[in-house]
Amino acid sequence: MTEPVIVLDQLSKSFGNVHAVRDLSLQIEAGTIFGFLGPNGAGKTTTMRMLCGLTHPTGGRATIDGLDVWQDRQKVRTKFGYVPQRFSLYLDLTVAENFRFFGGAYGVPGAELESRIEHLLRGNRLRVGARSLAAVF
């Protein structure tokens, strides 16, 4: 068994008296495909927002690759991706420009970012839309 890359230890988030996530503990190993399933209000999005460092937990701890998701959130963002339920692209940017914008927002350095964009365009058959506006692609 390999070491877990994602560890949640009694992770909690409350909004006033409402407990969105209460004492969630789990470990996910590298290479595992994992998803959260549950009804509206079950805490799926709140948990993901905590893992991305977008929402501060009110209790417990979460780490990704040994990094605390809140204390080390800038470093975590280079290791962890999240596609929300309502995926948002900037429709007035091209596909490649959207990649450039979001990669830059996550601090991916210039040469590495261009290499990753090239890989994504090639590997996902997006080359044809690289210069097209996201609104029409």
Task: Describe it.
The protein is α+β, with helices and mostly antiparallel strands. It folds into 2 domains: 4-76, 3-Layer(aba) Sandwich (Rossmann fold); 95-129, no CATH class. Helices cover 27% and strands 23% of the residues. It has 4 helices and 4 strands; from the N terminus they run ββαββααα. The chain has a 4-stranded antiparallel beta sheet with strand order 2-1-3-4. A hairpin with a 2-residue loop joins β1 (4-15) and β2 (18-29). α3 packs across α4. The longest helix is centred in the last third of the chain and has 14 residues, at 110-123.
What topology does this entry show?
Blueprint: E1 4-15, E2 18-29, H1 44-51, E3 59-64, E4 67-68, H2 73-76, H3 95-105, H4 110-123
Antiparallel strand pairs: 1-2, 1-3, 3-4
Helix pairs in contact: 3-4
What would you report as the Rg, rounded to the nearest angstrom?
Answer: 17 Å
CATH topology of the largest domain: Rossmann fold
Number of extended strands? 4
What is the number of domains?
Answer: 2
Question: What structural class should be given to the helix and strand makeup?
Answer: alpha+beta
Please give the largest β-sheet. 4 strands, antiparallel
User: What percent of residues are in strands?
Assistant: 15-25%
CATH architecture of the largest domain: 3-Layer(aba) Sandwich
- Spatial order of the strands forming the largest sheet: 2-1-3-4
Sequence stretches where pLDDT stays below 50 over 5 or more residues: none
Please count the helical segments: 4
The span between the termini is 43 Å
Overall residue-averaged pLDDT value: 88
| CATH homologous superfamily title of the largest domain | P-loop containing nucleotide triphosphate hydrolases
Helix content class: 25-40%
Tertiary shape: globular
Give the CATH level 1 class of the largest domain. Answer: Alpha Beta
What is the N-to-C succession of helices and strands? EEHEEHHH
